[in-house]
């Protein structure tokens, strides 16, 4: 059995991974790594490929793609009943996406050479996952694991826009442009926010985010206090901000200095739910699998990551 199995999304990084993967192969061979790989051909296929690889006995599963690809691979660590398949399997990441936000929290180099060196070193860390229950696009209840950050409201709306436009400008520009355009068109949602069973807000909101990692949206430090292995969800809410306020404070989110603004609230909890009479734009690790209402729980030290 070969040591590594790479799950490669050739469509990631605006399709450039299809070409760069050939370079990565040459680099892997130069390091004499023992590996197999498979290329994905469509959405959610990385989950199926990962499950099959784990069943075959591979112990180090490496996601090559963006945060959405990593999310699909992580969900492949679990069977259809939500039980982890094999406890001694570890996740690795070669980041080839638009946002590349998860690696900022895990301190994994963005360039593939550095990421491969991290895989060779082989140090692992147990991290938490968020368990998310939402309505999928067929309006059926679905559960999925989130590695980094999930939110409803403006962030979900931004992700929809970014995922349906060219990302050739790179992560920072793609998300900044998407955020600016979304703020101009976005209308605040309305709902009920419950933290550990207690209602903390009822009414309009701009965003409700459940954070496991610190960064989202191509480098915004949404949750600077987040620790990916502490067993808690960091909840960040922007309550009823107008368009001018959102635009004025956007630069603060990139710096992580928005915490403390009177309309920005922070909670630390084990469970979060957001309910509404309207479908809420939802994103999980940069992808749009469905809509809120949504509920979150935390699974402490659920998987191991090579970092």
Automatic annotation (TrEMBL):
Lineage, top-rank taxon, reads Bacteria
Residue span, DAGKc domain = 1-136
Cofactor(s) it depends on: Mg(2+)
Offer a single GO CC term for the protein.
Answer: plasma membrane
Concerning InterPro entries, the annotation shows:
ATP-NAD_kinase_N, Diacylglycerol/lipid_kinase, Diacylglycerol_kinase_cat_dom, Lipid_Phosphate_FormReg, NAD/diacylglycerol_kinase_sf, YegS/DAGK_C
- GO process terms (BP): phospholipid biosynthetic process
Q: What's one GO MF term for it?
A: kinase activity
- What keyword terms does UniProt attach to this protein? ATP-binding, Kinase, Lipid biosynthesis, Lipid metabolism, Magnesium, Metal-binding, Nucleotide-binding, Phospholipid biosynthesis, Phospholipid metabolism, Transferase
Bilayer-crossing regions: none
PANTHER family from the UniProt entry = LIPID KINASE YEGS (PTHR12358:SF106), SPHINGOSINE KINASE (PTHR12358)
Name the family. Belongs to the diacylglycerol/lipid kinase family.
Its recorded name reads Diacylglycerol kinase family lipid kinase
Protein's organism? Alkalicella caledoniensis
